[in-house]
């Protein structure tokens, strides 16, 4: 009943954007995830290639966020395996995924509310800091130089995302759109190879959405960061992604270029009355 | 000048017992700051640590018993992390708080099951007879208990060490991150379990120090567990997230209740000492809910 578009080879570069899409960075194979009797994901397989922007779409409850949580280690699927750079990983915990080069943002913004923008983004550098506890504590030697070096790096991200004016504002006080941007900044500070974005544009107005689109494209182009994003706004998905995975009721419905997916009868059926694109 | 003597003695005695309250409050602050959990079991940990120490010291040399107790407290921290906190990652603060109430009763009972429930004397080798200071200035001098002085010195050293620990940029940031949002902290690569183990172990060691100070004063017995209740007003005064706040809060409560007893007590029949701190805390709550030193609560609605 559910027709599946066979995964296509890397698509031809879209006219506006020239990007080299490389080999498979992450592959999920036959992933099944259950919570008690509820099947969140059933036998889902797809891959994410180096340098691409990969969208994961689907109606509410399709298992999109569960998929991201599987990829970054919050959930452990009962079946299937995950290949990261060609190597199967077993029960990777989130902080280990972070160490491996996977950063993410959350659907319901997960920032450190009491900290300033700057401190929030600095937490993204924790894995890069190597000074010993004593050096850190006394703020001498490597402790000091490292803090200054990382601070410098973070300032560049702040400039890049145009949030210099809120550098010292506690993030709890920021409007929603800016919080989303700080969260992206924190993920970028980790210099990830794979950036997972869970509805980066949810709840934003048109202008904020356009800004966010631009940032995602810039990150992808300038740093070559691979991006996997969940998004509901079809026009956004069709505009910026190279390939799209469609999930429905925890199953893979379609997988292909935006054009292939848009014309897929199964996708149209699932989205009837929902799609705008 | 002569009438100043008793006043000074009261204030000094109050401040000293305030330091002891602060020692208990410190354990609360430590865990709350670093994991966002209000650990009701801190008092039970004080009792458990003191019981372990006093019973081990019966058949081991004291330094060895002390070290072994530290190991035991780290094991307790590990067990709490593994069996209670880890399964509850990401849950609401209230659920974690309820879990620590469970831990409280378990530790109280389990501690007395394995170590016994009598009153045990803890002798730290500190002279029991009081010192009299400034005898030349005041008739009879000012009475100070050496145990209190000892406890104050230890508390001072602990606070210094902990402040450095928390204000070191990287660790401090990691701890605050964990306290703020478990999932986000993990996603930036902070190993939640290790942080919790470190913090709960530290709180266990602080509990041991508090248990030694209180135990040598009152004897090691079940009521040590109840001093956690005395730490609550200290926490409200000082703020849940501030280490200096715990100290200042402790001093205010200690000196305040002794002064109230000394001045107001006689006219209304005494016993003020037992409730003064709570009324003070209530007053502070009305004016400054985050405590005198607490971080201002930021919430955008």
Structural class category of chain A: alpha/beta
Number of strands of chain A: 10
Poorly predicted ranges of chain B: none
**Count of separate structural domains of chain B:** 1
Task: Tell the overall outline of chain A.
Answer: globular
Strand content of chain B: under 5%
What is the helix fraction of residues of chain A, given as a range?
A: 25-40%
Q: CATH topology of the largest domain in chain A, anyone? A: Rossmann fold
In the sheet with the most strands of chain B, the strands line up as 1-2
- Sequence stretches where pLDDT stays below 50 over 5 or more residues of chain A: 1-16
The beta-strand count of chain B equals 2
| Class inferred from helices and paired strands of chain B | mainly alpha
Radius of gyration based on Cα positions of chain A = 19 Å
List descriptors:
heterodimer, A: alpha/beta, Rossmann fold, 2 domains, six-stranded mixed sheet, four-stranded antiparallel sheet, 10 strands, 23% strand, B: 301 residues, mainly alpha, ABC transporter involved in vitamin B12 uptake, BtuC, two-stranded antiparallel sheet, 2 strands, globular
Question: Would you summarize the structure shown here?
Answer:
The complex is a heterodimer of chains A (277) and B (301). Chain A has 277 residues and is of the alpha/beta class. Helices cover 36% and strands 23% of the residues of chain A.
Describe this structure in words.
The complex is a heterodimer of chains A (277) and B (301). With 277 residues, chain A is an alpha/beta fold. Chain A folds into two domains: 185 residues, P-loop containing nucleotide triphosphate hydrolases (Rossmann fold); 84 residues, no CATH class. In chain A, 36% of the residues lie in helices and 23% in strands. Chain A is built from ten helices and ten strands. Chain A has a six-stranded mixed beta sheet, sandwiched between helices. The radius of gyration of chain A is 19 Å and the shape is globular. The two termini of chain A are 23 Å apart. The N terminus of chain A is likely disordered. Chain B is mainly α and 301 residues long. Chain B has one domain: ABC transporter involved in vitamin B12 uptake, BtuC. Chain B contains twelve helices and two strands; from the N terminus they run ααααββαααααααα. Chain B has a two-stranded antiparallel sheet. In chain B, a hairpin with an 8-residue loop joins β1 and β2. In chain B, α10 packs across α12. Chain B is globular. Chain B starts with a helix and ends in a 14-residue tail after the last helix. At the A-B interface, α2, α3 and α4 of A face α5, α6 and α7 of B.
């Amino acid at each position: 009943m559910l027709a599946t578009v066979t995964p296509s080879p890397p698509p031809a570069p879209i006219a506006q954007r020239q990007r080299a899409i490389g080999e498979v960075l992450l592959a999920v194979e036959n992933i099944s995830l259950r919570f008690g009797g509820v099947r969140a994901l059933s036998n889902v397989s797809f891959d994410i290639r180096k340098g691409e922007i990969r969208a994961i779409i689907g109606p509410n409850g399709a298992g999109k966020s569960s998929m991201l949580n599987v990829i970054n280690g919050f959930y452990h699927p009962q079946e299937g395996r995950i290949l990261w750079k060609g190597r199967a990983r077993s029960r990777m915990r989130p902080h280990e995924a972070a160490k491996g080069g996977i950063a993410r943002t959350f659907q319901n913004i997960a920032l450190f509310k009491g900290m300033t923008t700057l401190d929030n983004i600095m937490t993204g550098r924790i894995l890069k800091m190597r000074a010993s506890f004593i050096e850190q504590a006394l703020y001498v030697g490597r402790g000091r130089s490292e803090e200054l070096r990382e601070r410098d790096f973070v300032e560049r991200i702040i400039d890049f995302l145009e949030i210099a004016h809120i550098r010292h504002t506690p993030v709890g006080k920021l409007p929603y759109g800016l919080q989303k941007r700080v969260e992206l900044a924190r993920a970028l500070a980790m210099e990830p190879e794979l950036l997972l974005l869970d509805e980066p544009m949810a709840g934003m107005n048109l202008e904020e959405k356009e800004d966010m689109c631009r940032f995602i494209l810039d990150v992808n182009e300038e740093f070559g960061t691979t991006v996997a994003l969940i998004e509901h706004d079809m026009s956004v998905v069709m505009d910026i992604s190279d390939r799209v995975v469609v999930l429905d009721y925890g199953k893979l419905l379609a997988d292909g270029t935006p054009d292939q997916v848009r014309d897929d009868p199964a996708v149209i059926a699932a989205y009837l009355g929902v799609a705008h694109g | 000048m002569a009438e100043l003597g008793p006043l000074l003695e009261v204030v000094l005695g109050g401040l000293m017992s305030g330091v002891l309250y602060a020692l208990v409050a410190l354990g609360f602050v430590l865990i709350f700051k670093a994991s966002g959990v209000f650990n009701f079991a801190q008092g039970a940990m004080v009792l458990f640590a003191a019981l372990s120490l006093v019973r081990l010291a019966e058949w081991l040399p004291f330094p060895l018993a002390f070290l072994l107790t530290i190991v035991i407290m780290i094991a307790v921290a590990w067990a709490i992390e593994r069996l209670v906190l880890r399964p509850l990652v990401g849950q609401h603060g209230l659920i974690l708080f309820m879990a620590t109430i469970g831990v409280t009763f378990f530790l109280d009972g389990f501690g007395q099951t394995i170590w016994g429930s009598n009153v045990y004397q803890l002798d730290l080798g500190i002279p029991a007879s009081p010192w009299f200071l400034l005898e030349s200035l005041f008739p009879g001098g000012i009475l100070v208990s050496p145990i209190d002085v000892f406890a104050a010195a230890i508390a001072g050293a602990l606070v210094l060490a902990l402040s450095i620990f928390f204000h070191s940029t990287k660790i401090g940031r990691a701890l605050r991150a964990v306290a703020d949002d478990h999932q986000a902290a993990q996603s930036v690569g902070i190993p939640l379990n290790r942080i919790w183990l470190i913090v709960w172990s530290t709180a266990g060691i602080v509990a041991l120090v508090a248990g030694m100070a209180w135990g040598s004063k009152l004897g090691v017995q079940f009521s040590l567990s109840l001093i956690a209740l005395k730490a609550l007003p200290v926490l409200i005064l000082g703020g849940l997230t501030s280490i200096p706040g715990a100290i200042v809060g402790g001093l205010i409560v200690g000196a305040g209740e002794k002064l109230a007893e000394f001045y107001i007590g006689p006219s209304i029949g005494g016993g003020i000492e037992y409730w003064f701190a709570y009324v003070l805390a209530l007053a502070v709550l009305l004016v400054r809910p985050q405590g005198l030193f607490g971080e201002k609560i930021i919430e955008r609605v």
